[in-house]
Specification:
Length: 225
C-alpha cells in the first residue's frame, strides 16, 4: 500500500525541500519505488528543481498546478485535472527519473492562501478546506509506493491538506536553537489536528540537515529536541 509522508518545519532555510527531493530520488533510483512528490510550498523550489522553470511556467499558465485546484474550490469551477497536472519522469538527473512524478506548485498560492477558510462546505457539508487535496489525489494514490509532500513553512490550511493525507511526517532541521524552537508547536498542532479529524498520522522523527561540526551554533547537545 502507498505510504504518504509530509515534511514540515516552521522555519525556512533548514533544507526541507532539498531533503524531500533527495529522498524522492533515492527511493526511486536505489529502491526502484514509484514516487510522487507533491509540492505544496508556494515558493515552488521543489517544482523548479525537478522540472525546470520554463516547463513550470507553461504548466502554471495552463492551470496545471495546485493553484488551479484551490482556485476551483474558491471560484466553484472544475478546471483542475490531476492527470494532466502530474509531471512524469521528473528530476534533472539523467534527463528525468522514470519512476518519479511531480505534482507542481505555484507562486499564486501565496495570493489565495488567506482566502481558503472561505471555501464553502457544499450542499451537503462534505467539503472542507483541509480535504481539497485528498479529493483530488485519491484517484491516483494507488499508482505509487510513496507520496512525499513538501509542506510550506507554516501550519496553515495548505499544510493541513498535506497532513490530512499523510501516514507520517518528518521534521528536517539544522541543529541549532533557532531552528528547533518550532518543533513543539508542530507536534502539538499535528496531534490536535489528528484527534479532531481522526486521521492516522504519526511522527517519523527529526532529520538533521546541513550539520557542520566546525560551527559553534550547530551544537547537538544544546539544540531543543
Amino acid at each position: 500500500m502507498v505510504k504518504v509522508v509530509s515534511t514540515i518545519n516552521l522555519k525556512g532555510g533548514v533544507g526541507k525541500t532539498m531533503m524531500t527531493i533527495a529522498l524522492a530520488e533515492f527511493l526511486s533510483i536505489e529502491h526502484k519505488k514509484k514516487v510522487l512528490l507533491i509540492d505544496l510550498d508556494p515558493q515552488t523550489n521543489a517544482t523548479v528543481s525537478l522540472m525546470g522553470e520554463t516547463a513550470w511556467l507553461t504548466k502554471d499558465q495552463r492551470g496545471e498546478t495546485l493553484l488551479q485546484l484551490f482556485k476551483d474550490k474558491l471560484e466553484k469551477t472544475s478546471k483542475f485535472d490531476i492527470k494532466r497536472a502530474i509531471v512524469k519522469k521528473a528530476s534533472n538527473i539523467a534527463g528525468g527519473i522514470g519512476t518519479l512524478d511531480l505534482l507542481p506548485s505555484s507562486l499564486g498560492l501565496i495570493d489565495i492562501q488567506d482566502s481558503l477558510p472561505l471555501i464553502p462546505a457544499g450542499r451537503f457539508y462534505v467539503t472542507s478546506p483541509v480535504t481539497i487535496l485528498k479529493e483530488a489525489i485519491s484517484p491516483v494514490l494507488d499508482d505509487y509506493d510513496f507520496v512525499l509532500v513538501d509542506c510550506p513553512p507554516n501550519l496553515g490550511i495548505i499544510t493541513l491538506n498535506g497532513i490530512f493525507i499523510s501516514d507520517y511526517y518528518l521534521i528536517p532541521c539544522i541543529p541549532d536553537i533557532l531552528s528547533t524552537y518550532g518543533i513543539p508547536q508542530i507536534l502539538s498542532r499535528v496531534d490536535n489536528f489528528k484527534r479532531e479529524t481522526k486521521i492516522g498520522i504519526s511522527p517519523l522523527g527529526i532529520v538533521i540537515s546541513m550539520y557542520r561540526a566546525q560551527s559553534k551554533l550547530h551544537n547537538l547537545n544544546s539544540a531543543i529536541f
